[in-house]
Task: structure prediction
Amino acid sequence: MTELIIFGPPGSGKGTYSKELERLIGIKRISTGDIFRKEIEKNTKLGQAIKKYVESGALVPDDIVIKVVEKELKRIRKKNFILDGFPRTIEQAKALDKIVKIKGIILLRMDERILIKKLAGRRVCINCGKPYNVVSIDEVVGKVHYVLPAIKPKKRGICDVCGSKLIQRKDDKPSVIKKRLEVYKKQSRPVLRYYRKKGVTFINVTVNRDIETVTKRILSLLKRRMKIKV
Ligand code: ADP
Ligand code: ZN
Result:
């Protein structure tokens, strides 16, 4: 059984790498952010209740999030999964403990200055959700050299896959980006200490290269540290 969490600040690539792992090692990805955005788009009751939190960069209340994840885990019968965007508070981690035992955490690291640039450059397809990025980064911060190529569509502002329009997520506006980073530091980062104390395996990865390179690093660490077949 493979029960994983992918963790990291907003913009570090949790969505990107959990999708890669879903595709490459066949584990089911559960993304609370994606679920919430879909509910908002469909204007369901749940969507209406959470819209103001998501769009302002605040966390959705724990009781709502926990119910959503419980339902998803039940639906996939708790088998081989990677959680993207959950748990984001100690409360959520404790609730998760009551349902399943987490085996490993993939922790994505990226300097805050790079995160801000990258988030501001993110665009997503309004129809299929495919992410793009209009900024390319080549910068040394601390001792880390970040070389992150832009991911541009062939035709400006148009999705390669489905031909729909690319937009900026409401929470990728500069003021909201700042708020999300603060929320991460205050409310989400403590979750790491919680799992360290429990002795869960940590797979630490610095995200300073293109998607393919970083994916290979993650796969090789999963193989070595967790004996996961890749
Ligand atoms: P990112 O990690 O880039 O900020 P996500 O797509 O994971 O983006 O989440 C977007 C938003 O959805 C969050 O800012 C928050 O409002 C809401 N959200 C997602 N997951 C959770 C969670 N586990 N607890 C509370 N709110 C959440
Ligand atoms: Zn598209």
User: Anything to note?
Assistant: Residues 45 and 155 are 36 Å apart (CA to CA). The pocket of adenosine-5'-diphosphate (ligand 1) is lined by residues 10-11, 14, 32-33, 36, 53-54, 57-60, 65, 85-86, 88, 92, 171, 180 (CB under 6 Å). The chain has one domain: 3-226.
